[in-house]
Write a structure and sequence with these properties.
Layout lengths: L3 E6 L9 H22 L3 E7 L8 H5 L2 H10 L1 E5 L13 H8 L8 H7 L4 H10 L4 E5 L2 E8 L2 E8 L31 E3 L9 H14 L2 E4 L9 E4 L5 E4 L12 E8 L2 E9 L4 E8 H8 L2 E2 L2 E2 L2 H8 L15 H4 L4 E5 L5 E7 L10 E6 L5 H14 L3 E6 L10 H12 L5 H6 L4 E6 L8 H14 L2 E7 L19 E6 L4 H13 L8 H20 L7 H12 L3 H5 L3 H15 L7 H15 L1
Helix pairs in contact: 15-16, 15-17
Amino acid sequence: MSHTLFVNISDIHIKESNKNQIYKKFDALIKQIHAINKLNNYKKIIILVSGDIAFSGKKEEYSLLDSYFEDLAITYDLIMCPGNHDHDFSSYASMVARNQLLKLSPDQQDSETIRLATTGMENYYDFESKYTAIKKTSSSPLSNTYELIDEQGKIFVSSLNTAWCSQLKEVGGDIRFPIKFLPQNSSNDRNIVFFHHPLSWIEPNNQKEVRNIIREEYSIILTGHEHLGDSFKVIGESNSCLMIEAIPLDDPQIKDNGFITFIIKDNDVIIKNYLWTGNEFTESVTLNKSDVMKNCSISTNHYHVNYDFYKSLLDIGVTYLHPDKDQIDLNDVFVYPNLKLINDDNKFNLRKVASDTLLNLEEKKTLLIGDEYCGKTTLLRKLFIDAVSKGFIPLLIEGPSIRSGGVEYEKILARQISKQYSNLSLIDFVNTSNSKVLLLDGFELIKGDRKSISTFLERSYNIFDKIIITVSDTFDFGGSELLGESYFDDGFNKYEILKLGYRLRYELVNKWNSLKEECSNGNGCLLYKNNHAVKTITKVLGKNYIPSTPFFLLTLLQSMESGNALEVSANTYGYYYEYLITQSLGNASVKKEELDEFFNYVKELSYYLH
């Protein structure tokens, strides 16, 4: 076998009082790695040590592990990164001075700042340099990159020092990592980055910057620190990036101690978990990256929706601030709106239809009409998810993405299929026996002349078993009436998307409040919260301040949490957007006196972009 095996060891916490227990584990660890190598004949074995080697960063603590690390370094290759316990905080001349350095903005932090803020890590740096023999291909004050070569090609491994700004008592959200010190690597499906703190410990805005960069450049992100109580955690960070949060080698406070191994094989990653059983490490769990990605997304039969696309479906487009849930997605707050059927004579029918039945109706062609606030796009995203659960093969196409719809029809479909599915080609899509559903959002935004658009629709009728199209209620078809002679005269059932009535408003309120911890223990609190919110909403709607659509109602619910619902309700629609922006800036620690500067900048930027 020519693959490279990676072994991750994290959170050792060696000190004089626990050295015998640690020695027992290291004896078993080295024995286990030797056995794994003999059984599989790996070309290379790389040991990744992801921080907290010592307990308090003392020189004598590291010396307790010299013989074991020397054994590992002679036989294998060692790469390390530091953790917060690798700081000797007692060595700092002044914690006040260090804290002032840490308050500098990322743009102000330079090599000298980093050096002064990490003087308590000198013992770790000495230990790392003693046992890391692989030559660095690049480095910055907070990162190192190493190039490995095996029979499959190059592997780049980068280590980050997220603990450089750690405190003796730190909490999640306090860590900051200047992105200018991230390694500069080209994307590769065998690139690995590891660091001590999971991304959730990084300050939210900084976290997004770091995450967006590393998940584009690396296929595996490996972290430690959290001492997970139940084995290790593996999640899909993007369609091509796998995040592994490892367990500690030694933490007597939790059940599972151990280490993990992984190999990159045939465009997949195979991860194994080894748990300490008291005298030895026993193989416990094996996972494949491909299976993890499937579980993070949705699939119909053997066709899998791309993870990134699935995440975009769940994104409701607005960052609502909920008191007990960091991120609200589609599944948390979606409510199916009612529809009103429009007769062939273009008159509204009194009969209402629940939008969750659209996929079950026998009609092949459906047109949904509504204003900009009614949630047309969100409804189609939910219908996509529903269609997959029913065994259909849906395809969601946005109007602006269609240009030259007649000539470029096959290219448009192929591009969308590749974006939305991980293992489906255009040929397989056309030939599949599964019912195919076209969800076309924003028909009025399609680019092209009447012939091109008509050709696109006609070709779609031949391929798709069901077609659902949304269009704005203000759109006019080249001067003709919307419901008169148009593209949609032939076989389309036309519906207006209605505002939320009392029952659906209550359902939305109930979903919002059900996410609160205080409402999860008993019905009494939930009912009280629901009734209070519904009364406030009814009062606002009764004065015609806002339309009864999810966007405005959710904004109103958010404002109730801060006690200024009436202030928000008594303003124009534009105020709702301003309110959401202001709340988001406040959540990002922007001071009130800085808001005018931000708004002036955003106005200039939006004018330029528009």
